Amino acid sequence: MFGYLNVHDTAAVVLVLMKQKDFAAARRTYLKVLESVPGHECTKVGPVEGWPILQYSHEDRTVEVCAAFVHLAPSLSKSSVPMPGDRHTGSAR
C-alpha cells in the first residue's frame, strides 16, 4: 500500500467499487483483505457510515486510509430501457 503513496501523504482514500448481489458480505470480505495488509494497526469508524478508516504504519510513517465501499447497481439491459416512441406498459418485450 505504501508504494502508492508519496512520503508526505498522511491520509488517503481507497475506492472499492463492487458489483455484488450480496454487498454486505462482499464488503466484509474486502475489509478483511484491507486489514490483512502489512502495517495495519487499527480500524475506526469513518466519516460516512460503512466507510471505515484503517490506520497503517510502516517504518516511521503512519497513514490513515478511508475505505470507500461503493455498490455498483447492475446496468439496465437493453430490453428494459424504453426507446423513444415506445409505449411502456410495464411488461417485458
Helix and strand string, N-terminal first? EHEEE
- CA radius of gyration is 20 Å
- Strand percentage lies at 35-45%
The structural class is: mainly beta
Biggest pleated sheet? 4 strands, mixed
Mean pLDDT: 81
Query: Oligomeric status of the shown chains?
Result: single chain
Number of helices: 1
Secondary-structure map with pairings?
Layout: E1 11-18, H1 23-35, E2 40-48, E3 51-58, E4 61-71
Parallel strand pairs: 1-4
Antiparallel strand pairs: 2-3, 3-4
Overview of this structure, please?
The chain is mainly beta and 93 residues long. The chain has one domain. The protein is 14% helix and 39% strand. The protein has one helix and four strands; from the N terminus they run βαβββ. A four-stranded mixed β-sheet has the order 1-4-3-2, covered by helices on one side. β2 and β3 (51-58) form a beta hairpin.
